[in-house]
Structure prediction request, 202 residues.
Amino acid sequence: MKILHLDSSVLNDNSVTRQLTRALVDSLQAQHGSTGVIYHDLASNEIPHLSGEILGAAFTPESDWSELQRSERARSEQLIGEFLGSEILVIGAPMYNFSIPSQLKAWIDRVAVAGRTFKYTDTGPVGLAGGKTVYVVSARGGVYSNEQGQAMDFQEDYLKTVLGFLGISDVRFIRAEAVAMGDDARSNALNAAKEAIAQATR
Prediction:
């Protein structure tokens, strides 16, 4: 069993999602026994966003690649290999301005690759990365799970959509909401999320 653990919060020790993803990975390891974990701190070690030069490697003979193209192609291959080789993904995804951190989007852009993790067919796109379980640990300062808030949620819906596009249907959300709405609300949100982790890993 291999776990790919991604954190994307820029808040370091003050991060709700970092606290909860650690607890979740610990619980998964206790449940599954011998489990290998690959960890990426996407905030501290940012993956460069795609550029014209990086993408240009796909249309340039390898012998003519720049040093940047060579190094970034190697990085992308590593990230794709880790993604495809994992059975479980644990993704820490705080809500930033109604969506996800750009650091997490940079990772997604590296692993969502035609011919590797999805393909186009005569009947539409087909995901090639199925058979995984993804736990998304989501944190929000306010409440976005109600009818009014859902209209502004481009975080969880986006992740569910893009992972589904890659063939992953088993996407489970562990949510801490209202963490910026006072000490009591934050405490209640953390307790509820920890209980959800306990339920999910029994």
